[in-house]
């Protein structure tokens, strides 16, 4: 029995090590593809549900820059699935994501099941306030990416893209509390319109 437990422990550690190496390779590849002295995108842009529903054209532009990897959190996919019966925008976002994932666009992907720090989500919070739950899950994903990506030699590792000012988002107090505690050091929050405007001059579209 002890042998089986040790074997399982070694297998789990190997999987964690491989996941960390994969993320570090993603970041290194992005850094290596950029020209010297060129401004650097955060390697991971994490999309909030509001961006997919209210600012999808901007997100589509970002997938063409070849300067970052856009992560769609599993919680965001869950929210889109919840909204699809009543929201045409959610249905449009789902169709676009399915197409991108099917075509294997290397610059946009869904969060993997193991890309989280907490082992279980807060099911009670999901029942009482789905929007805040989603934001908590997004931050958890970002913290994992920041922790596993190694030493990024430029700016922060992850930026959460939102469609409105953070102050107007459900869960903004939760985020501010984490920021005050120093728990979001490698995570920034930006309106996607502001982000696109800031970086537009250095984009290199691939078509």
UniProtKB/TrEMBL annotation:
Coiled coil spans: 4-31
Keywords: Coiled coil
A Gene Ontology term for the protein's cellular component: telomerase holoenzyme complex
Highest taxon of source: Eukaryota
A GO biological-process term: nuclear-transcribed mRNA catabolic process, nonsense-mediated decay
Record-level Gene Ontology MF annotations: telomerase RNA binding; telomeric DNA binding
Residue ranges occupied by any PIN domain in the UniProt entry: 43-170
UniProt entry tagged with the keyword Coiled coil: yes
Cross-referenced InterPro entries: Est1/Ebs1-like (IPR045153), PIN_dom (IPR002716)
Pfam families attached to this UniProt entry: PIN_4
Signal peptide limits: none
PANTHER family: NONSENSE-MEDIATED MRNA DECAY FACTOR, SMG-7 SUPPRESSOR WITH MORPHOLOGICAL EFFECT ON GENITALIA PROTEIN 7
Protein name: Protein SMG5-like
Organism of provenance: Octopus sinensis (East Asian common octopus)
